[in-house]
Amino acid sequence: MPGYQAPGWPLPPGAHFVAGFNADSFLAYLVGGFGEFPPPSVLGAPIGKSNPSDTLAAWRSAFGTKRQADRDATQKKWAELIKQLVTARGGEYESLVEQAWIEFDLATRLLGRLESSATLTWRRLAERRSPREAATILHRLWKWQDGFFEARPDAAQRAFVIAGIDSQLARFCTGPRADALFAEADQALTATRPPVTAEHLVFHSTHADLLAKWAIQEAGSGSAAVFGRAQKMFRELIASHGQRVTYLYPSYIYALEGRAKVASPKEAAGLMAEAREYAERFVKADPTNCDRWWTRARAALGEGDTDEAARAFERLLVLKPDDAKYVFPRWGEGLGKLGKIEEAEEKFGKAESLAQPAFDLYANWASVLVGAGRWDDAARRAAQAEELQAGSGSYACAQMAAAKGDRESVRRWLGRAAEYGLIPSLADLLRDPAMAEYRDEVAAIFPGLNV
Question: Does CATH place domain 361-423 in 1.25.40?
Answer without folding.
Answer: yes
